[in-house]
Amino acid sequence: MLSLTKLNIQYAHRFLGYEGEAQYLHGHTGTLTIEVEGGVDAKSGFVYPCNSIKRVAWNYLVNFDHALILQQEDPLLPGILEAYKKQGIKDGAPSNKAVGTAIDTDLAKAYPECRLVVVKKVATCENLIELFYSLLKDKLNIKKLTFTSGDNAASATF
Fold first, then answer.
1. Among candidate residues 78, 71, 77, the one with its CA nearest the CA of residue 122
2. How many structural domains are present in the chain?
3. Cα separation of 116 and 25, whole Å?
4. Beta pairing partners, 149
5. Under a CB-based contact definition with an 8 Å cutoff, are residues 131 and 69 in contact?
6. Is the pTM of this model over 0.85?
7. Distance in angstroms (rounded) separating the CA atoms of residues 100 and 109
8. Are 60 and 100 in contact (CB under 8 A)?
9. How many CB atoms are closer than 10 A to CB 49?
10. HEC string of the chain?
11. Cα 56-129-68 angle, rounded to 5 deg
């Protein structure tokens, strides 16, 4: 059996070295669908309560919500950090209430205080699924992840 839930994130990114519209900074609404596998608990009637899936996943995904996602070699990155420093928001602002669990993995590093995620691979749906799975695989018994962003989508079964 599966329990399934969806989480939405708003983010901006660009595809470094891409020929086309995606080479420019642009934004998306992304939807991550998480399918968790297991047996139905006789007491609760759930495989895994959907609100619990959301709570566990959001601890990490909040880093991507209303955030800028850039590749580590993006020449915009130093300028963004400098602009945030000049604005006094690089180390956080009082309005930034949604600070997630810090991320520093082989795939990405999040700077939750300034709503920035630096990724090692292009922020495609496929690569973001790999990143999300790496963050959540030890927390949830994930069977499948699907990430939809604009007209694009990817899915992976584990």
1. 71
2. 1
3. 14
4. 30, 152
5. no
6. yes
7. 12
8. yes
9. 15
10. CEEEEEEEEEEEECCCCCCCHHHCCEEEEEEEEEEEECCCCCCCCCCCCHHHHHHHHHHHHHHHCCEEEEECCCCHHHHHHHHHHHHCCCCCCCCCCCCCCCCECCCEEEEHHHCEEEECCCCCHHHHHHHHHHHHCCCCCEEEEEEEECCEEEEEEC
11. 85
Tokens of 148: 């939809």
Q: Which tokens sit at 127?
A: 């690569």
Range of the domain at 90: 2-157
- Tokens of residue 104, six digits: 């520093």
79-112 pLDDT per residue, tens: 999 999 999 888 777 777 778 888 999 999 999 8
| Cβ contacts of 110 within 8 Å, gap of 6 or more | 63, 64, 67, 100, 102, 103, 104, 116, 117, 118
Residue 110 bridge partners (DSSP): 117
CATH of the domain at 114: 3.30.479.10
